[in-house]
Amino acid sequence: MTGLAIIVLAAGSARRMRGRDKLMETIDGTPLIARQLGRAIATGLTTYVALSPNHPARAEAIEGMNAIRIPVPDAADGMAMSLRGAIAALPAGHSGAMVVLADMPDITTDDLNALRDAFDADPRAIIRATSNGVQGHPVVFPADLFPDLIAITGDTGAKPVIMTHKDRLHLIPLPEGHATTDLDTPEAWDDWRARTNTPS
Question: At what angle do helices 109-121 and 32-41 cross, to 10 degrees?
């Protein structure tokens, strides 16, 4: 496979949801994981989804969707393990990987296309989304940085790689909140539903 890939990280444990699974919260009747994965697939890019065997309902929710599943058995050890496992599982030939967090409901297909276009224009750059001047997600990494991503540890994600190569960082502004809104707690979900007039 060639070209830019999308990796949707959907293996996290959602500990702060107090017994609920944030990726199975429904929006217009669709679980968040399926909604966001569908938006990634709609770009036309080869799409991968990192999943933990500890969350079988997530796998069921995306049954039949045109995404390549990457199992991450040690996802409970932190975001770095999900990212490392997903990057390591990519077949050779991809020019880069756009890392998308599945718990960010404001990210749209248009947002993902904007990052793809920026990467196409500068394929050596790290392309990172921002909203209101704050850096967030998604982030696109060129393939030459895959070994750096596979070497990360802990729960800080790819921040060390971005800092090491900050001279290659290219920021792309997305509409208000799109790059920074993630829903990790029941309160965050309640606030988002009220703000967007989205019923539970």
Answer: 40
pTM of the model: 0.93
Query: 14 pLDDT band (50/70/90 cuts)?
Result: low
Q: Give Cα separations from 54 to 31, 65, 76, 88, 151 (angstroms).
A: 17, 20, 9, 20, 24
CB atoms under 10 Å from CB of 181, counted, come to: 20
On whether the CB atoms of residues 53 and 13 are closer than 8 A, the answer is: no
Compute the distance between CA of residue 78 and CA of residue 13 in angstroms, rounded to an integer: 9
What's the rounded Cα separation, in Å, for the pair 78 and 74? Answer: 8
Would you call 72 helix, strand, or coil by DSSP? Answer: coil
The CATH number fitting domain 3-196, selected from 3.90.550.10, 3.40.470.10, 3.30.300.30, 3.90.249.10: 3.90.550.10
Question: What angle is formed at CA 99 by the lines to CA 53 and CA 24, rounded to 5 degrees?
Answer: 45
Assess contact for 75 and 50: CB atoms under 8 A: yes
List, for residues 35-60, the tens digit of each pLDDT value: 999 999 999 999 999 998 888 999 99
